[in-house]
Amino acid sequence: MNGNDIISLGLGLEEPWKITGQTLNTDTAPHELRITLSSDRGSIFPCPECGALCKAHDFKEMTWRHLNFFQHHCYITAPVPRVNCKDHGVKRIKVPWARKGSKFTLLFEQAALMLVREMPVLAASRIMQIPDKKLWRIVSHYVSESLDKIDLSNVKAIGLDETASKRRHNYVTVFIDLNKKAKPVIFATPGKGKETICRFKKFLQHHGGKAAHILEVVCDMSKSFLAGVKEHFEKATVTIDWFHIVQTFTKAVNKVRLLESKKTSLPKATRWATLKNAESSLSKDEQKALAELERMDFFTGVAWRAKERLRWVRQAETVQAAKWRLSNFLLRMSYERLERSPVLQPLVEAVETIIRHRPAIEARWESNHSNARLEGLNSLFQAARARARGYRNPATFISMIYLIASPVGDMIKST
After folding, report:
1. Cα 357 to Cα 389: distance, rounded to the nearest angstrom
2. Which of the four CATH numbers 1.10.240.10, 3.30.420.10, 3.40.50.1100, 3.40.50.300 does domain 157-241+370-413 have?
3. Digitized pLDDT (tens) for each residue of the chain, 415 residues in all
């Protein structure tokens, strides 16, 4: 087997294509190896539409970037014919070494995708020595192509949450299949709110799923999310993820602390002590701060106790126990006389949130699902965004989300 045979095998060349020339240009930096392909005069080619063998109508010389040959850049050049098919007219043929519309060979694109899965696109583009915009176009093509093949006919429970795509309130909403153990992301779209639910419904139906088959949706307490679910997934039960309940009360405690600190001096280490729970590892200053908050009846202490009682509610093991503990929690909150000071207004709003969404919160004990996995994935998405030092636009961030946490990544590996 000679050198031409090896290159032909790597490119997947078939009759009538063959290597007819090789030149190495050492005047450029890096050096360029150019391989010329051609076919014998009178060769016939398959129609790209029906595969019927046809005669060439005319030719156009085209060039593709190939994998480096040692340290040299390698380019493939060939006169690509258009064929005159009796059924489909004049059509440009498909070459076996590159996809239609690409300026890179299939092997080059697969090598690029392997790098992108392991490092930021900008770093991969430096290694491949191509502009990152061109690399993103390769990634976007294969992500889109793989996404079209996803089957969502068995999706019955979904979780959704937004993740920041840029600073200044730029978000992407991510949807996951809660019954899928690995690579659960099935859809991601720019923005957040009701319109993202509508887009997901269309995507679901386009990929074999039905809105009537969605029986449970796990999300946060966003009014727009809840309205969108009610409108587009009428048969679905909404479950408010417990993470967002805790987050609501944690924010309320911090707001109460900030308001109270403007009027009186709080004990040292109050900030970090109130963000933790009573059973966590507390420093001596934090233990002292909590004890003083209790003894002096600070409003911040009232808010912190409410957060701790909420943890007691979460520990209920049955639906009935959860309902009783939640009723007890709300009754204790009424005894606290939260209206006695404007400082406690954030806590009042947090309690009202519990009352407003109580059925969806109690559904947490009837469901085996939560958004904990989505919160974990969100940390991966943000870590990737940090490594890349941000993405140029939401579309590139969404492509990376699919590569990290959807079946798309595995489908691309198999291409």
Report:
1. 38
2. 3.30.420.10
3. 566 767 777 777 888 888 888 888 888 888 889 999 999 888 999 999 998 999 999 999 999 999 988 888 999 999 999 999 999 999 999 998 999 989 999 999 999 988 887 888 888 999 999 999 999 999 999 999 999 999 999 999 999 999 888 776 789 999 999 999 889 999 999 998 899 999 999 999 999 999 999 999 999 888 999 999 999 999 999 998 888 898 899 999 999 999 999 988 998 888 888 888 777 788 888 889 888 888 888 889 889 989 989 889 988 889 899 999 999 999 888 877 777 788 889 999 999 999 999 999 998 888 878 777 787 888 888 888 887 777 778 888 999 899 888 988 777 765 5
Structural tokens at position 103: 């300026």
Question: Residues 293, 300: contact at Cβ < 8 Å?
Answer: yes
Contact residues for 326 (Cβ-Cβ < 8 A; gap 6+) = 313, 354, 358, 361, 362
Which amino acid is it at 114? M
Prediction pTM value = 0.82
